[in-house]
Amino acid sequence: MQKYSGEQTLALLVELLLDFLDEINEPLENYTNADFVLGRKTAYVECLEIIQEKWIGSNAHGIPEDIEKVYTV
Length: 73
Prior knowledge:
Elements: H1 6-23, H2 34-54, H3 67-70
Helix pairs in contact: 1-2
């Protein structure tokens, strides 16, 4: 398995979390397991907010400025 730098790893995580959010970014009424989906969305958004707050390079990797508005939790 290939090893990555810290910055590359964070960039991959951001991409993965944004992809996960895009997959579940529908109204919760569309899900039979809405509580589980809400928990996932909340966790992904919180992770991205931490990355956005702490990582200087986060702006260049597609995290929306106000992620909670884009991915309503």
